[in-house]
Design brief:
By secondary structure, the protein is an all-alpha fold. The protein has a domain of 74 residues. The protein is built from 4 helices and no strands. α2 runs antiparallel to α3 and α3 runs antiparallel to α4. It is elongated and about 70 Å long.
Length: 109
């Protein structure tokens, strides 16, 4: 009897873990973290003004909200994942563009 309870508990834990893993996308999460790090680095180096960083962070926040909406049904479809990566590609280009324009943060900002 005790073995059956342990077996059922392990089985249920496995089902719960697989459901959580199905709704996560390590590729999307990794890109989001890297892009936030790029923005932080740009602020520290002076390549980004505070206003530019604010706009880039707002763009990233929108992508995270979109990701949460996609995952609200418990799964992330291939089309949804593709859309998130397309949005992350655009955000990456925007970070590059803002870091390499002529706007520099002054010490007073």
């Amino acid at each position: 009897m005790r073995e059956v309870v342990v077996l059922l508990a392990a089985l249920m834990a496995g089902v719960c873990l697989s459901a959580v893993a199905a709704e996560r996308d390590p590729g999307v999460n990794h890109r989001q973290h890297r892009q936030e790090h790029r923005v932080q680095q740009g602020v520290r180096s002076g390549e980004l003004t505070r206003q530019e960083a604010k706009g880039l962070r707002q763009e990233e926040r929108g992508i995270r909200q979109e990701e949460r909406a996609y995952k609200s049904d418990g799964k992330l479809t291939r089309a949804e994942r593709k859309d998130l990566h397309r949005d992350l590609n655009q955000a990456s280009k925007d970070i590059y563009r803002e870091k390499h324009d002529d706007d520099k943060r002054s010490r007073a900002q």
